[in-house]
Amino acid sequence: MSRAGAAVLLALGLLAGTLVAQTGERATPEPWFDEVAAARGLAFEHVSGQEPGAYLFPEIHAGGAALFDADSDGDLDAYLVQSGGLRVAAAERPGNRLFLNRGDGSFRDATEGSGADDRGFGMGVAAGDYDGDGRTDLYVTNLGPNVLLRNLGDGRFEDVTARAGVGAAGWSSSAAFLDYDLDGDLDLFVVNYLDWTLAGEVECVDTTGKRCYCGPATYNTPAPDVLYRNDGDGRFTDVSREAGLGVGFGTGLGVTVGDFDANGRPDLFVANDNMLDQLWLNQSDGTFREEAVFWGCAADASGRPKAGMGVSSADVDDDGDLDLVVCNLGGESDSLFLNNGGFFVDRTRSSGLASLSGALTRFGMGWLDFDNDGMLDLYQANGAIGRRGRIYLDSDPYAQPNLLIRGRPGPRYEEVLPRGGTREPLIATSRAAAFGDVDGDGGVDVVVVNRDAPAYLLHNRAAKRGHHLRVRVLTDAGADALGAVVFAEFGGRRVRREVLAAYSYQAANEPTAHFGLGEAEGVDGLEVRWPDGRRRCFGSRRAGELLVARRSEGSACPEG
Amino acid sequence: MRAAAALAQPAATVDLEGADPEVAARIEEARRKVLESPEEAAAWLELGKLYHAHQLTEAAVAGYRRAAGLDSDSPKAWYFLALAEAELGELEIALDAGARVVELVPGYAPVHWRRGRWLESLGRTGEAEAAFRRAVDVDPSAAAGWVGLASILLERGRAREAVDILRPVLAADRTNGIAGQLFGRALLAAGDETAARRVLGMTAGMGAYFPDPWHEEVLDSVTGVLNRLQLLNARMARGELDRVIRQLEALRESHPEHVGVLNLLSEGYLQLGRLDAARAVLEIALGTDPTDFSTLIHLAQAARFGGDLEAALGWADRALEANPRLWQGHFERASIFYADNRLEECLGALERAMRHGAHQNPNAWLTQGDALLRLARWSEAATVLERATARFPFLAQAWVGLAVAEVERGRIERARAALETAAELQPEDETMSAVRTRIRELERAGGGSR
Fold first, then answer.
1. Among B50, A207, B29, which residue's Cα sits nearest to residue B64?
2. B53, A333: Cβ pair inside 8 Å?
3. Residues of B in contact with A203 (CB under 8 A)
4. pLDDT (tens digit per residue) in B273-298
């Protein structure tokens, strides 16, 4: 048969049977994850409060998730952000939930009496020890006033929003704690989406004339993001204007933090929806300069803005600097930006990512080594905003399968089957995905919040998982040293991983540096760089270890 | 509820309940035709296009497949099938269908550059390069082919060659944002950071339109007044003013009081300077919805363009009453005050506009800078215009304004640098000559600072 003839038949689907007959039975690949939320006590069902036929825009964007150590017992607890109806009185909303880890990766609902059950129309959450007491605090983003929850220990929290001065109202999406001025305490960056009100909601229709959710351009009210400086006494000051962020209006949804220009100061990358993304480079004098266009990461190679949702950063090509991946709306590919030392190069197409990601609408996302082979993989939590494209679930036209994508050298990417890494595809309208090793077995697990559906807890059970090493870097007070960097040497590589909680979408993630080592039995050298630039070295370490790195420990690193 | 495996199979039915009656009627009519003549490829093709234009892509694929099955020599059936499959992420199938188009109509350039893009997305860069080269072989004016080729070369680290390919593309169409962004990235990779920053700034967010008449045929199948308006709005944005106005006038015949149609039509008339025609349709729109924000803003603009600033202010105030949160209302007021030389009021309105998002608009910055210059508030003007140039480095007028502010502050070197940048962006004009003269005067007098 001629190639043309085959092409004709292929496109018509007439050869499908033949292909199956020729290839015979295919072995079903072993899934990398088991969905164990119900079995492990993570009983959380998000409630958007959607009003049939109303199509209120915020309903389709929530909710968030955090994996963090709420009770300082060394394991990861979960905080899941609830919404609960835009016209529902706060007291009648279900409220956010706190789940404490029993120490074996199973959870108990510890919300009652915790003080953490904020009942705003919740969006996302950030985690960090803002008051330097060694306990991880939470900042909850809402449609309406945001909330700062100070961790009192033992899984109890106190709402200190008013005292701290960080309760700005509006529509916030993601947030990040970072020490932008390197004064030793954590400041707070809040990503705002739109200036939206219930009264100002607009009616939109899709291409068939049916009612649907609008896009952000319909409202044309992008909101400025906010930078709060930690004053060191439990209070914050809004320094957005003097820091140069005041002109930065955008439809912000996702954020990540990292030193992209290697000047020793944390920068910010904001994924905007249908607007150019922003790269705020820290100028070391208390100000930021927006440079995304000039660094080539404001849009993809076409220069057209995409609908940025989730974002993740890591040194994916082992060249010592931070790269970026941004996920977008269905019909648009992800954007893979490799840092070339002063600008980014768009490698979305040549990495294979463009052909994998474009058909689904991606929100939560993490660039982590799920199979511990030493290469960073991608997990993407998906769910549509509109009804165009493929409908996967009759009961929820926005539901889509999630994606698990394996990283290969290059980097190159290929989808892991079965789809989403689970035996049967999980199909829901997924939003936040939070990443961390909840049972301490060396495999990165995932918590996914699904709109109007139960959350997933994806336990990593990848059969061919390589060795691993985990490094928890602490501040002097004993909290996670957000902004620290860990370098590990193994197999002839020097691999960089961040101590980073803020990435994905509306999520706070385990900030422990996770190294997949492949077949290596350990690392030959380990260097930790704290946010203030001071370094300590911890020599060779065996695989499987969880190293808790304190500045008072280790040894001086060699110069250079 | 967790999905069962069976649900992984996507549903393909098209539910028209609640759809726009006009859209539903057209689709029903096309369905009836294929039922009446199920062996007629043209009927399936039309149904496929109709689905496709309304983003019912899976259903469109089914229609196109039937059309191609009934007439395997129909290049458009294969081409549309390829486009729809690509939209669903099925690039391998799109490539196969596209290959059939190449066999049937090898001289149609868009199929080559689209195949190049799909191949590039699959990481098959060698084949992608060949496809892009074929596109420019069959049509040397196919900018998409050149851009694709440059993208491959840049990927391979051959930045200088990419620069050489893109320079003429951009010279032929300075509004081609895709070529501009790629050109900027190629310049960065080639080490020319200064030129790169300028090009990247100039073309950020602009996008580009690569002609593909067959694809336009699909888009033209769209029905329903809102869909038509969206299509025509996009075409107006890329400068097809005469054609769009003709189509809008035709649309108006079937929707004589539709505010959206009247607003877009008035926008076209305003762009052509046909103020009376604009006012006439806006009066009709106003009769339908006296609080429509766009109508009121367009009325303000029509009055301002006609020199009736008092009336313009009245319309702008009414627009702000209708929606005080949209920056366009505040900016229109600022523009009216500016035209009326009421500069302090202009600055006040601009501040409100900026608070509501006018930072996105370069004209807001220019107006603010110019008002401050006219008030001789040199230092403030310099601050505003410096921020404008940081945000919009392609804005020659902002650089000129900055030069004016700096020279009046006696900062000669800064003025000269701003002027040099402006000169790279636009031809010398009277203002620039005047700044140069002023710089020379200051130098002769030994004044100024560096």
1. B50
2. no
3. none
4. 999 999 999 999 999 999 999 999 99
